[in-house]
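Record 1 of the preview.
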Amino acid sequence: MTRRETVNGAFNQALEQAVEQAQHAAPEEAMNEALLHQQENGRWEWMKLKDSYFFGPNEASICTFETKDDASNDRSQYLAAPIDAYGRRVRDKATIVNLLCLAAECEVDCDGSAINVVWHPRDANGNNWSVQTDECITAIADLIALLQATYSIPDEGAAQ
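->
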């Protein structure tokens, strides 16, 4: 099953739960609660429904989190993050490093590796950061590419 099929299945399940919970709580509270999903391995992820029926993708956390509160906090920060001219959410370096470290902990090749996010002028794709690490970059290369397509960091130089 692909990640997209997994996310769509989780969205459908989350919506069913939201409807059921809405009978007992304020609708917004129930919907926010239902959009936090615990995976079979015990880790948590968050989801965001698309903004309209026809436009915009459903979105889900790129990384999983140890606790429900961590997933909820990351979802709140994601939703509050500004969107740049390239359609990416702007998050600080520390947050990107944290997301990379969450993923790296799940990769055997990455145990104990130092991961650094480095700003650079935007490339042709609009990406303005890269990763420097001692050894595990190949183990999380797909995640890095996904994070780069999703997030920018605040620009540090005059050349934007």
